[in-house]
Specification:
The protein is of the alpha+beta class. Strands 1, 2, 3, 4, 5, 6, 7, 9 and 10 form a 9-stranded mixed sheet that branches. It has an 8-stranded mixed sheet with strand order 13-14-12-15-24-23-19-20, with helices on one face. Strands 59, 60, 63, 64, 65, 67, 68 and 71 form an 8-stranded antiparallel sheet that branches. The longest helix is centred in the C-terminal third of the chain and has 34 residues. 34% of the residues are buried. It is found in: Cell membrane. Belongs to the G-protein coupled receptor 2 family. Adhesion G-protein coupled receptor (ADGR) subfamily. It is a multi-pass membrane protein. One of its GO terms (molecular function) is G protein-coupled receptor activity.
Length: 1335
């Protein structure tokens, strides 16, 4: 056969019948005929290049053979002639030389070229493709809608058959046609007329679509018709039916792809949405037929087609493989099986299996549906849940038997036991009648330690019939005695002041509790130090952390894990080696001055009672030096005389002493600071030290009568008039110093919780005795606050004595007598008042109820009340407090909030009548009521609503704010914050509604309503008029737009004015709405406030930048007279400047400040100033623009004053002055110069007149511009007025561009060329356009 490499090659396939006799030794060559298109003649010759066909020769007389003969043509014009030739040939034909007779010749198949390696083949009349290749033939691309054209099929070349055969009932497309239900989507809007089959639109769609469908599907095997059945919404879905033979998936997809070429593109048919739903090719079976609860049901879906996957549905819900559902899909056998185990009544209903086969242009959906019903089956169990100890000898010997029974007798009963748990101990099944038993063989090895306490569930399943079953579970808890190990991070020895960890680990994770004890000699004490013990479950580890070891921590540590009634323990011994603590090392001096080459004694002292086995050295500038040891009263001191030899310049020398004990661990003292003063005259010199005038000297507080030899604190001396005077004394009194030391030991000791009540009692007593010392010393006051903060971290049982002692101590230090000490603390800018408030919060938070109660405790200025939340508590939390000054506060938490709390959680409220006044506050706002703290022991991430009613202390104060003390503000020094709180004011009370808990009060200000009412009146009335005027301005601009934008300058001027008006209108609307809400004290969402602030900021910036654009256009027209820029360029620059710049500034501001919660102010919806200085993002651009526009206004005035040629008459002078006044009146509002008065308003304590003037001018800014811009119908007269302004260009400007710019800017004149009309005309035109901005 010739190779079909020539695209112009055409083939005919002939079916020839011949009777011949062929010798056995001969080879047969098929005949090939080639038509010579150039000669137009037929020439017959054997095609020798064709591959030889080996024939199987039978030795029979005169056999009949049928030959397939291929005739290739290179010119299709001979196709009909060749057909006619073979049709008219005289038969039979005798070929004598080979003894063959040709009895019949028929043309069966005609192939035309269709691409490089394919051809389009047709069957002649009476012939059809064999059924074996029916699904493989692909329709050729159709070139016409004419149905009379034959349907060709694509075949690869070279084509070796099979060829078309005589048509029979078994041929391709000759069987009974099938009905295909299909749909496709049109990507257009659905119209109601498509629901009406009699409407014209419906008929048109139906006719056009059916025509396209018939043209596209006509080449499917056995095609009959395609009919549109309806339309449905969802874009437009076309439902249609195709009657055809058994077409393959690929053939239908190929025909679908051709549909759009027969349909108008306006239909927007989506060729990828063709879908066929097949319901009659699915065989759905369900087993068993009668289904009971607990059955295993198999639903089998067999599809008579190839599919990729199957999806199962129960009603409309997709079924996924899971614990009860399993899906087995066999693509080879086209079968999918859904197995449902342990069916219930809920499993009844309709089940569907859906398979989808998708291609680029065709989707087939096979769907089968069946409904099942599930009936109940009742079973009665008789068993119990039990606990088992794995290593119990009795249990290991006898084991354990579990049992369960069914409540009816069944002919076939199957029983199975399932084990589900981390401990997999299995047993032997015993069946007796309608009952079953399960004998467990328990062995210790099967119950590993890490799984002790685990629960294993044994499920008895009794099945009957087709597997209907009932199950009952028995929970078996396996326990095991634990093995405990203990280790230390210190290798059994640790120095005082050093930290260490003791780790206790158990192989049993599911413990109930862990306890620690320290045994020292015959004394055993429990470790109850609050937060020093950290326990974890997985792994079972308890870590005891000691931050600073003392002699109280020496001994044998016993760690005990308890699991129900089983205790498992381990122990380790820790020795604490003496080493002075850093705080107990006295350094003298702390800070002093030294001279060059003059020795200065440096001293470190410790208590003489401590062990002396230390190696002590002095370290000066990282160099170690030996010391001298001597006893000094109750102190043991180590001295080193330091002489500074490097005296080139003033410098600081740092020194400290180092103590090292016998195990090599050391501690460094506080640093001594030495100031070298070379070449300076020493003014003060005595036993304290030396120094120049104004120098300071800091010495420790040494008290030889004190057993430790010194107290905390220091004394600061000042060199004044050649003598040292005490500038500040921060020494603690001996009792308070001892209290502080004991508090530090208590907090870091092992019995903190047990010893806390007695310590609080002593603290209260000593504070009463030292009250005189405290009120005269801020250091002693600060020490008491520090003590309260330290002990508040220790949990305490809610008993009246310790609570009374703690609150009484707080009451003592906030008494009126301590006011001076508090003022000193405020001057030092410490956070002691905030720390005191936080310590009371922590104390109330850690109260542990006794007998589910919190006792009420009160002191003179502090009161505490609380409750324990119990199960089914339906009572609201309602507590009233009254101070000695007869001020009241009520705390109310609703029943709904209480019911949402966890059981045994506590709510505690503490009232303060004095402490609130010691907290930092603004000068303009005062605490005008009691301070109340409410804490909740259970953690709650969501909001928690609480209402508080405060009585006003001073009725003259106004503008109440509900505030809470936010400890995180002001660099964690704390400050008042009103977030989450809303005030409601009455005559004598303020009700605060807050959505969180902490310390609350009310802040109020002096009555400034009379000062603000006039400003508010001006703002509201002015803004209202401004909004109306802006709307009028925008309407007027839209009406006269085409009349006033007849040149580039006028166009850009009105673009700027329109954008200024629009931006200012939006900003004013936002401003007046937010201001009215704020003034009425209405609650506003924080998100709304942030959004309002952003838009006000953005649109006011847009106003300024558009005013800048207007000013720059004016400046450009006045200065660059001979330069012209296109309207598009000017507009692009103006819009970028007017909107892009403000947007960048506004977005940057919110992005930087919002994460820090400092974008808006606390009281109003505007940019923050105090915390983040976000207001500068508005003030700086505004003032720069105002200054720029002020400069432009000055340039305009200079331009107007520029002298003309010749002398001016008095009339011209008056006209110039009038023009100047007119320009100033117009430019002031248009360029935003009135905003310059805003600079005065941001100055502290500025006169109210500036505020009123600023509000008045800017509220009426647009009215001024509107009156100036739209008076006396100036729209049509701009050009005539502009043309009256004559400006002659300076000669110097024509030659030097830079000089021209300078001259235009400053209005300088030089030599003028009066006769040169051309430049003058140009200059006049451009300048007149610039001046038209003012008219």
């Amino acid at each position: 056969m010739p190779s079909p490499t020539t695209t112009g090659l055409h083939c005919l396939f002939l079916l020839a019948s011949a009777c011949c006799q062929i010798p056995q030794s001969s080879n047969f060559y098929p005949l090939s005929y080639v038509i010579d298109s150039t000669l137009g003649q037929e020439s017959f010759f054997p095609e020798m290049q064709r591959q030889k066909r080996n024939m199987f020769i039978l030795d029979l007389p005169f056999p009949e053979h049928t030959f397939d003969i291929e005739v290739s043509l290179q010119d299709s014009s001979y196709l009909d002639e060749i057909k006619a030739y073979f049709k008219n040939i005289d038969l039979p034909i005798n070929i004598s030389n080979v003894q063959t007779t040709v009895s019949n010749i028929s043309i069966t198949t005609v192939c035309l070229p269709s691409g490089e390696n394919s051809s389009c083949c047709f069957c002649e009349d009476g012939y059809a493709w064999p059924s074996t290749v029916c699904s493989d033939v692909m329709p050729c691309p159709s070139l016409s809608l004419e149905p009379a054209l034959p349907c060709g099929y694509m075949q690869k070349m070279p084509f070796y058959g099979p060829y078309c055969e005589p048509q029979t009932e078994e041929s391709c497309g000759m069987g009974e046609p099938i009905l295909m239900n299909m749909s496709v989507r049109l990507d257009s809007n659905f119209q109601d007329d498509l629901k009406n089959s009699s409407s014209l639109l419906y008929q048109k769609y139906k006719m056009d679509l059916e025509k396209a469908f018939n043209a596209s599907y006509r080449c499917l095997p056995g095609f009959v018709s395609a009919t549109v059945t309806g339309f449905s919404p969802g874009s437009v879905f076309v439902n249609f039916e195709v009657r055809t033979g058994a077409a393959s998936f690929t053939q239908v997809g190929h025909s679908n792809r051709a549909v759009p070429q027969f349909l108008d593109s306006s239909y927007q048919l989506n060729p990828f949405t063709f879908t066929r739903v097949i319901t009659n090719q699915t065989n759905f079976t369900v087993k068993p037929s009668n289904i009971f609860e607990g059955d295993t049901v198999r639903l089998t879906c067999e599809i008579n087609s190839t599919f990729s996957n199957v999806t199962w549905y129960h009603f409309d819900q997709t079924i996924s493989a899971g614990s009860r559902y399993s899906i087995e899909t066999d693509s080879a056998s086209t079968r999918s099986i859904l197995t449902i185990t342990n069916v219930t009544m809920k499993d009844s209903g309709s089940y569907s299996c859906v398979s989808i086969r998708s291609g680029p242009y065709h989707t087939e959906i096979h769907n089968g549906t069946e409904t099942i019903s599930v009936f109940p089956l009742h079973v009665t169990p008789n068993f119990e849940d039990i606990d088992v100890t794995c290593n119990s000898p009795e249990v290991q010997a006898k084991g354990l038997q579990l049992s369960c029974c069914i409540d009816r007798h069944m002919t076939s009963l199957r029983v199975s036991w399932k084990v589900n748990g981390t401990i997999n101990i299995i047993g032997e099944t015993i069946l007796s009648g309608n009952c079953t038993g399960y004998q467990l063989a328990i062995n210790e090895s099967l119950c590993p330690p890490e799984k002790s306490g685990a629960v294993t569930t044994y499920t008895c399943e009794m099945e009957t019939g087709h597997g209907a079953r009932r199950a009952r579970s028995i929970a078996v808890t396996y326990l095991r005695k634990a093995h405990v190990t203990i280790s230390s991070s210190t290798n059994s020895r640790v120095s005082e002041g050093y930290g260490f960890n003791v780790t206790c680990e158990s192989d049993v994770s599911n413990y109930d509790s862990i306890s620690w004890k320290i045994q020292s000699g015959n004394d055993t004490k429990p470790v109850d130090c609050g937060t020093c013990i950290k326990n974890s479950k997985f792994p079972a580890v308890s870590v005891l952390t000691v931050k600073s070891a003392s002699q109280d921590w020496r001994g044998t540590y016993i760690c005990t894990f308890s699991q129900k009634n089983l205790d498992s323990s381990a122990n380790i011994t820790i020795k604490v080696v003496s080493l002075p603590l850093k705080k107990n090392i006295l350094v003298d001096p702390i800070e002093t001055s030294i001279q060059c080459e003059v020795p200065r004694a440096l001293e470190c002292c410790i208590s003489a009672k401590t062990v002396r086995e230390y190696r002590v050295t002095f370290v000066v500038q990282q160099n170690e030096f030996p010391i001298e040891e001597r006893k000094k009263d109750n102190l043991l001191c180590y001295t080193y005389n330091h002489t500074e030899k490097e005296c080139n310049k003033e410098k600081e020398v740092m020194a400290y002493c180092k103590f090292v004990n016998r195990i090599g661990q050391g501690v460094d003292s506080e640093h001594i600071t030495l100031h070298l003063i070379p070449g300076k005259k020493v003014s003060c010199s005595d036993s304290l030290g030396i120094g120049t005038e104004g120098d300071i000297l800091i010495k420790p507080c040494c008290d030889v009568k004190n057993p430790t030899g010194f107290t905390r604190g220091n004394i600061t001396y000042l060199c004044n008039h050649s003598s040292w005077i005490v500038a500040r004394n921060d020494c603690l009194s001996e009792p308070i110093n001892n209290l502080l030391s004991d508090a530090e030991s208590l907090v870091s000791g092992p019995e903190a919780k047990a010893k806390l009540p007695s310590y609080l009692e002593r603290l209260n007593e000593q504070t009463k005795k030292e009250l005189t010392t405290i009120k005269n010393s801020s250091a002693n006051l600060g020490a008491i606050i520090t003590i309260l903060d330290m002990v508040s971290s220790i949990p305490v049982e809610a008993e009246e004595p310790p609570m009374q002692n703690f609150l009484s101590t707080v009451d003592l230090i906030v008494d009126n007598s301590t006011t001076e000490a508090w003022e000193n603390l405020k001057e030092e800018k410490t956070r002691q008042s905030s720390l005191l408030l936080q310590s009371v919060e922590n104390f109330s938070l850690r109260l542990q109820p006794v007998n589910n109660t919190i006792p009420s405790v009160s002191a003179n200025t502090v009161q505490l009340q609380g409750v324990v939340v119990k199960e089914n508590n339906n009572t609201a939390y309602n507590k009233d407090f009254r101070s000695a000054e007869n001020l009241t506060v009520n705390v109310l938490i609703s029943e709904t909030e209480i019911q949402n709390l966890t059981q045994n959680s506590t709510i505690v409220s503490v009232m303060y009548s004095k402490l609130g006044h010691f907290l930092p506050q603004k000068t303009s706002e005062f605490v005008n009521g009691l301070l109340i703290t409410t804490t909740l022991s259970s953690n709650r991430s969501q909001k928690f609503d609480v209402n508080m009613t405060f009585a006003k202390k001073d009725l003259s104060l106004k503008m109440p704010k509900c505030v809470f003390w936010n400890f995180t503000l002001n660099n964690h020094k704390g400050d008042w914050d009103n977030y989450g709180c809303t005030p409601t004011e009455s005559e004598r009370y303020v009700i605060c509604s807050c959505n969180h808990l902490t310390s609350f009060s009310i802040l109020m200000s002096p009555d400034r309503s009379s000062e603000l009412i006039f400003e508010n009146y001006i703002s509201y009335v002015g803004l209202a008029i401004s909004i109306v005027s802006l709307v009028v301005c925008i309407i007027i601009e839209s009406l006269v737009w085409k009349y006033v934008t007849n040149n580039t300058t006028s166009y850009m001027r009105h673009v700027c004015i329109l954008n200024i008006a629009t931006s200012l209108l939006i900003a004013d609307v936002w401003f007046i709405v937010i201001a009215s809400i704020t003034d009425q004290n209405q609650q506003m969402s924080r998100d709304i406030c942030i959004m309002a602030t952003f838009f006000i900021h953005f649109f006011y910036l847009c106003v300024f930048f558009w005013m800048l654009s207007l000013g720059l256009i004016l400046f450009y027209r006045l200065v660059f007279i001979l330069h012209n820029t296109s309207k598009t360029a000017q507009k692009t620059v103006a819009f970028c400047l007017g909107y892009v710049c403000p947007f960048v500034i506004a977005v940057t501001t919110i992005a930087v400040t919002l994460p820090k919660n400092s974008y808006t102010r606390k009281d109003v919806c505007w940019l923050n100033w105090q915390d983040s200085k976000a207001l500068l993002a508005f003030v700086i651009p505004a003032l720069i623009i105002v200054a720029t526009n002020l400069f432009i206004a000055a340039v305009v005035i200079i331009k107007i004053l520029r002298p003309t040629i010749g002398d001016r008459s008095s009339g011209q002078e008056r006209k110039s002055l009038f023009q100047i006044g007119k320009s100033v009146a117009i430019l002031t509002p248009l360029l935003g110069l009135t905003w310059g008065f805003g600079l005065a308003t941001i100055i502290k304590n500025s006169h109210p007149a500036f505020h009123i003037l600023f509000s008045l001018l800017n509220a009426l800014q647009i009215q001024e511009a509107l009156l100036k811009r739209n008076s006396s119908s100036k729209w049509s007269s701009q050009q005539s007025k502009s043309s009256s302004l004559i400006l002659v260009t300076p000669m110097l400007a024509m030659s030097y561009p830079f000089s021209r710019t300078f001259n235009n800017l400053c209005g300088k004149t030089g030599k003028y060329r009066v006769s040169s009309s051309e430049p003058s005309t140009s200059s006049t035109e451009n300048t007149s356009k610039a001046y038209s901005l003012l008219n």
